Amino acid sequence: MSNALPKIAWIGLGIMGSPMSENLIKAGYDVTGFTLEREKLDRLAAAGGTAAGSIAEAVRDADVVITMVPASPQVEAIAYGPDGILENARSGALLIDMSSITPQTSVDLAKAAQDKGIRVLDAPVSGGEAGAIEAVLSIMVGGEQADFDQARPIFEALGKTVVLCGPHGSGQTVKAANQLIVAVNIQACAEAVVFLEKSGVDLKAALDVLNGGLAGSTVLTRKKDNFLGRDFKPGFRIDLHHKDMGIVTDAARNVGAALPVGAVVAQLVASLRAQGDGGLDHSALLRAVERLSGARI
Question: Which one of 55, 67, 119, 176 has the minimum C-beta count within 10 Å?
């Protein structure tokens, strides 16, 4: 049966890439991976995948190439150049970039790939590490309908909400909006937490009742325990949210959309990073509010 499934090359095995690639292996796909860290390649092999020694080796025989790296510069580094994906993948392959990058980078990549006979989808995700592990990610896609239809079974092994949002770059635009909403939401929750604690209220009780009403959100459900336990082990690092706030503020400026609250939260994320908290989970926005309020850190 598994022979009928497309052969997949996976480039980038980080916090998101490792569990996602493993979910494809569990679904019966043949996955060959490449990443820079040896222990991540060992983890892939232990899960039943194949470790490759280079991008070229990983993509050579692949029907579908999936990339999951931190930002636009990394996507460009792995896609272009003599050792990159476009030079080494076979004509007719489908390249699915699941990184969160600027919409323009996705548009440019699709254009460059077309010259090589390679089709491209931008397919960034939302749901963080937990969503990746549980295969319940939200996947927003930009590209052609036919390519989306071909990729759908792969997406359905990785996520729960899978939507084609429009042409190349559209997935990235929707992801940028997602990151805007998430950051503002975490900031609001963080302000509420500090307010509640300074008021001497039972924080757990308060967050439980708030989450049951209109103030409730997926953000609060997922991050409640981070706030309560001051546990900022990264599911999604401040460094990456900082990058994403740059993407959304820049893209909004380009289309003439004002993001007054988003711009303030972008600065708060930047300040948290400047204070050395870039490697913490984005729920650590709580620390920034605590600093401003003279509360405990």
Answer: 119
What domains can you pick out in the chain, each with its CATH number?
A: 8-167 (3.40.50.720), 174-293 (1.10.1040.10)
pLDDT reading at 3 higher than 60: no
Tell me the torsion sign for CA atoms 45, 67, 158, 119.
negative
Per-residue pLDDT at 212 exceeds 90: yes
Q: Point out the catalytic residue in the list 7, 40, 175, 223.
A: 175
Q: Which two structure tokens, joined as six digits, stand for 229?
A: 């336990």
Q: How confident is the model at residue 2 (pLDDT cuts 50, 70, 90)?
A: very low
pTM of structure: 0.94
pLDDT at site 4 = 87
